[in-house]
Amino acid sequence: MKFEPDTLASVHERMALVKAQSTEGFFTNYFRQEMVGPQVLTAATARSVLLANDEHDFFRLYFFTSDLADLEQILRDVDFPGDVVAGYLTKGADENIAAAFQQSGFNPIATYRRMITYRLPPQQPDPALEYAIAADVDQLYEDLFQTFNKYTDHLPNKNRLHAYVENQWVIVNRQAGRLLGAVCFQLEGPRVNYNYLYNLSGNALDFLRLQNNFYGAMHQRGIRAGFLWINQANTRLSALHESMGWRFDGLKDYFYLRSPHEIRELRPAVSVEDEADEVSRGGQCSEVSVNEIL
Fold this sequence. Notes:
Number of helices: 8
């Protein structure tokens, strides 16, 4: 079985048909997320639909099924177009979903947990707070890909980064004309998605200034609620966020990777660089910076 070029409208029709013919519900990781790349590829049976979207140099996989045995079989049979990553959101571990992926050649690579708050710290930003400009996009893009895990951190493409910059959703630390760190976020109505924070200066105080400016900017804009995702292995970071009022809400994102070739060693989802860089996805930072702050 092969993936074929398709359109999102056609994919939605296929999924609606599977749902309509189901008598026992369905399983999916597709919630009409924004596609990163232009390619939309599908493979389907009467009970399952696979959607693959090119994301940087790999494909993000989505599924919709009314039959987990059928899902496992199509995952075994289909010819994947390259490295493929799939995530599955759930509040309780689903052994059947995990088995369908792992028995069809996918390896678990990370689990992220969501944290939420309805009381962001009411801090004041530094008077020198600076937002990114259009000329920063290439550098921001490069820094994000050098710092974060492309498979699990849902890194934006340049078009999306341009939109962040235009909306003043990127706060930067610029020293002597160089970008040494940034906070990227998205406003979704009355709440904020705290996406990424990275600091390449090697100075933990710069990390704290970026974090403070983020909270200060939210306070100025009247944003009180937010959510972020954190790798569950980062217990010290969890404690840091909890000290700022964040709490886990029980939702988890399980990530799986399948490569048609040898599975390559992954960068850690949170990096500890030789220069003691601090990094953050949704407020994540390295063990070095957490140790210094705590």
